[in-house]
Predict the 3D structure of the following.
Amino acid sequence: MTNSSMQIKAVIVDAADPERLAGFWSEVLGRPVAGRTGPYVWLGRQGDLVVGFQQADGPRPGKNRVHVDIAAPDPAAEQRRIEALGGRRLHDYDDGGFLVMADLEGNEFCVVPDDPDGPDGSVGLDDAGRAHYLDRPADGDGR
């Protein structure tokens, strides 16, 4: 492995309505809308990473090729909160054992357990790559 000074600086999401989508993600991530520049709406920076929404023409053509995983102590509680904000669960991915959600424009993302000590981020992957955190009963600490 080589050392590199490169790092991910921003995640940019194409959006039919960047203002509306930024409002949704602002609530999901607890980051305020911090600015607007041309076709972009930016959320407040957290660490070195900024999230932006860019005006794009036309609908999303198909399945996301890249998605984000959002860590939470209690994924089931976050699912309910995200649904109350207008997001929805995508049951097409249930066989993989992940909690896959979609935002207001259908962009896919996973909500996973927040446990940095687990070898795979505490998702609990088996040899086939299937997660099992949704199979576990909640015991108060989100694990």
Remarks:
- The longest helix spans residues 18-29.
